[in-house]
Design goal:
By secondary structure, the chain is mainly beta. The chain has 3 helices and 44 strands. The chain has a 9-stranded antiparallel sheet, covered by helices on one side. A hairpin with a 6-residue loop joins strand 14 and strand 15. The chain is globular, with a radius of gyration of 26 Å. It starts with 6 loop residues before the first strand and ends in an 8-residue tail after the last strand. GO terms for molecular function: carbohydrate binding; rhamnogalacturonan endolyase activity.
């Protein structure tokens, strides 16, 4: 089909963009997508939903110390940014007015939509801005959401393995379901599709790490149309590569999450002080539309969408965005180097940091990139030699961060780097010295910032999502916190070093114990190990924590009632337990204790989660290592 010109039609309450393939109808001046015509469907969006909530930007925020607020981002000023036969870009802007201080969102928002000739889809981005007279603000979440035709879109896909027919929206409401302990979780008792009866439905089961996602969507039936969200870059999303975000959920709803606090807690909310100026471009993301006339080719829509995502990534940063705040490739710079690990207890030589994640972020504290939400982040993985190149970096001053599989802790280069337009900054060789004070006496797990290497039980037969049966992501099943009590009904977990296998004998999350009255009590795990000869000096216990949710964590050595050598109250708020994660906010605890606490022969380290009350309190271990005292001749 020959490319048709892009046409912009202005009506009293709407603006219509069309390129002969796609037609967008957008409310004016509000900027809500009310209609998407494509592939033989007059509207892909849910016509049973109010127009302002079909395709929309929204935000969760509060004033410091105030209650949480939700705002549907509505424009008050409409303008055409650019319009010709090849492209149309339209703006829907709302400007903060100081006269409304304390009553409305202290943020100016410019929402944009772009339609290009010959392109089967459209782009959207937004410019968020604060001026020096804005009051304080806490920005918790912002996103672009689409609610699709409920009678058409039933099949979702987020990876090659995670694809399924989804429930109808009425299925997750009583009386067709039973509400479970987690507010977002329901048991489908009488769904419209009987094949789904007895399964659990929960939007958090479809979460993805930023580094692993970037494409998700739905396929309709009759006609067969794919509706896909594509992230060509993650630079504008908060929380770095390991941040987990929602993707799709029953509705049918598809999300483009830009900022959020899920799986990290409120620490990663963007907090602005009184008078703090700020600007950030969120996006653009691409909404890709494809179709086929044959049901036998419906799965090919997913395959085609994967190819399109790769194409969008090669085009980043886009050269057709007109905002001066979105920088083109020639306005950006790059960074290169090579990362090594220096751990003399592993190797006397420097170790190339293979498959390490290394990135640039504004924050200057080790590991704080996890909760960085104001600025941009740029991340890549090193090759087998530890070499890396980070391209298309927005000029500015950054810290170099990283983490390396197989080693604990967070890398942070002490020297800040300045990225300049059109210049590759060459760092040369970098060296990461992971935390260590002595030789390894024993270890549990593998340090990869998750609890994936431990024992994950099968779900209770009453609470299954068939998508995760025999899946490497079986931890996504509902209610696994209660399986701990099922497996250890009378006493807590005891793990014997050198005998037990972490993949079979170490429960993947340290949770509370279910009691007979449906209460939940604290738990203490035992690690038993033998020492042939106690060396005088200081021993160190490294505990890499993959996630924690309001845990009261204590460590004791050989005396379960003695004074703890580590005592951390109310640790973490990432709720990875309730939201079916395998990691959250990573932390490293280093616990030192004197050799006088150890004895020749059998010793026990007691790990206590001392807080009871509900099933969502606890923590995930990534890796545990006991180090002996360093010999005088050792570094």
């Amino acid at each position: 089909m020959a490319k048709q010109n892009v046409v912009v039609t202005i009506q009293t309450s709407y603006v219509i963009l069309s390129n002969g393939i796609v037609k967008l109808t957008i409310s004016k001046p509000g900027g809500a997508l009310t209609g998407i015509q494509y592939g033989g469907l007059d509207n892909l969006l849910d016509i049973k939903t109010t127009e302002s909530q079909r395709g929309y930007w929204d935000i969760n925020w509060n004033l410091p110390g105030g209650q949480d607020r939700y705002t549907l981002l509505q424009g008050t000023e409409f303008s055409i940014v650019q319009a010709n036969k090849d492209i149309a870009e339209v703006s829907f802007r709302s400007s903060w007015d100081s006269s409304s201080r304390g009553t409305v969102l202290p943020l100016s928002v410019d929402k944009r939509f772009i339609l290009r000739s010959g392109i089967s889809g459209f782009y959207s981005y937004a410019i968020y801005e604060r001026t020096a007279n804005c009051p304080a603000l806490v920005l918790s979440q912002t996103r672009l959401a689409f609610k699709l035709r409920r009678e058409k879109f039933h099949y979702m896909a987020i990876t090659d393995e995670k694809q399924r027919i989804m429930p109808m929206p009425e299925d997750i409401l009583p009386p067709r379901c039973q509400e479970l302990a987690l507010p977002e979780s329901v048991l489908l008792t009488n769904p419209t599709n009987p094949d789904l009866k007895g399964q659990v439905e929960d939007k958090y089961q479809y979460s993805m790490d930023n580094k692993d996602g970037g494409l998700h969507g739905w396929i309709s039936s009759g006609p067969f149309v794919g509706f896909w969200i594509i992230f060509p870059s993650n630079e504008f999303r908060n929380g770095g590569p390991t941040k987990q975000n929602l993707t799709v959920h029953t509705g049918p709803t598809v999300l483009a999450m830009f900022h959020g606090v899920h799986y990290l807690g409120e620490d990663c909310a963007a907090s602005f002080t009184e008078g703090e100026a700020w600007r950030k471009v969120l996006g653009p993301i691409f909404v890709y539309l494809n179709s086929t006339s044959s049901v036998s080719n419906a799965h090919d829509l997913w395959i085609d969408a994967k190819k399109q995502r790769l194409s969008e990534m090669t085009q980043w940063p886009y050269n057709f965005v007109s905002s001066p705040f979105f920088l083109s490739e020639k306005e950006r710079g790059s960074l290169s180097g090579r990362l090594f690990v220096a751990d003399s207890y592993v190797s006397k030589n420097l170790i190339p940091a293979k498959n390490a994640h290394i990135g640039l972020a504004p924050t200057t504290s080790a590991g704080a990139w996890q909760i960085e939400s104001k600025g941009y982040q740029f991340w890549v993985q090193t090759d087998s030699n530890g070499d890396f190149v980070i391209n298309n970096v927005v000029p500015g001053v950054y810290a170099v961060h990283g983490f390396v599989p197989g080693f604990v802790g967070d890398y942070l280069d002490k020297t800040l780097v300045t990225i300049h337009q059109g210049i590759e900054t060459q760092l040369g060789n970098l060296s990461y010295n992971p935390p260590r004070d002595g030789p390894t006496l024993w270890e549990i797990g593998y340090p990869d910032r998750t609890a994936i290497g431990y024992y994950v039980p099968d779900a209770h037969p009453l609470y299954i999502n068939k998508l995760f049966v025999n899946s490497p992501e079986k931890y996504r099943q509902y209610g696994l916190w209660d399986r701990y009590t099922d497996i250890h009904p009378k006493s807590d977990q005891v793990f014997m070093i050198g005998v037990d296998d972490p993949k079979k004998d170490w429960f993947f999350m340290h949770v509370t114990r279910r009691t007979t009255n449906r209460g939940y009590s604290p738990t203490t795990w035992n690690i038993k190990f033998n020492i042939d000869e106690v060396t005088s000096g200081i021993y160190n216990l490294r505990l890499a924590i993959a996630a924690s949710n309001h845990a009261w964590f204590q460590v004791r050595v050989n005396n379960p009632n003695g004074a703890p050598v580590c005592d951390v109250f109310d640790m973490g708020s990432d709720n990875a337990i309730g939201r079916h994660g395998i990691h959250g906010l990573y932390q490293l605890l280093s616990v030192s204790f004197n050799s006088s606490l150890l004895v020749k022969g059998e010793n026990i380290i007691f790990l206590t989660q001392a807080r009871g009350g509900n099933e969502f309190l606890g923590l995930f271990y990534d890796y545990i290592r006991l180090e002996g005292p360093a010999a005088a001749s050792e570094p």
